[in-house]
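Before the break, one more example. Copy the sequence into your notebook; we will annotate it together after we see the structure.
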Amino acid sequence: MTWPELTLSDWEDTRVTLHLWTQVVGKVKLALEPMVNHWWGIALHVSARGLTTSLMPAGDRGVEMEFDFVDHRLHVRTSDGGARDVVLEPKSVAAFYRETMAALDDLGVDVTIRHPSPTEVPIATPFAEDEEHAAYDADAARRFWLAMVQAHRVMQVFRAGFDGKASPVHYFWGGADLATTRFSGRPAPPHPGGVPNCPDWVQRLAYSHEVHSCGFWPGGSDEGSFYAYGYPTPDGFADARIEPDAAFFDRGFGEFLLPYADVRRAADPDAMVLAFFQSTYDAVAGLGRWP
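Here is what the structure looks like once it is written out:
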């Protein structure tokens, strides 16, 4: 399978709208799931059709919500056989929010979203009021999902090489990134926060312990980027020797980036991404004197 082309300028409006739609579904999961360390319980997961919540508790039943980027539907299914679909097509965030909550209501799934507005974005228009973002290019959404399928596969290989505490490979809808994180086992200093429309205590919980985190994000370069960083950032990290040569330290983000376009054009994309993840981990763990 080839790595699809993802020029951001060609699907920017769809990217923004889709990001906000995933936040609607993510906030449903936040409302239904028990709390898990570092917010692992609220993430979405790459599936054979798109992105899924996996099974969530809904009273004495289970409910799953899945973005299907093949048939372009949001499937809402319950463990007693109930099912509703929300069509993925050009429509506003407000319309998507109304239809999604109506589908849950039709299935008897009681959900109260405490803060029905997006997080980690510069302007947090409440979902029910956002008529501005309404683009949906089905082919672009499908290509983004196929890129995540590829990234997920390689990230699973990287995750398997660590026998300490490590997160699943999962999609965080706040930043719209596919991530996996390794932990040193030691507490970290309180995170300074400062993420737009996100309480500082959310970041402090996410980064309560020392980490090396890496993943894929549709930003940072023309087609998106693989990224890697450590928290706390060890001294000398920005000057570390990182593979491959296409990787660079972005001082604005405070992390290493590897442009997705360089990966998809490479003779061996898997090896390129794995070298990037491993060399950044070696730098974080070595400079940070991990046990």
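Helices lie at 12-32, 93-106, 138-160, 200-206, 260-264, 269-287. The mean pLDDT is 97. Try to locate both features in your own notes.
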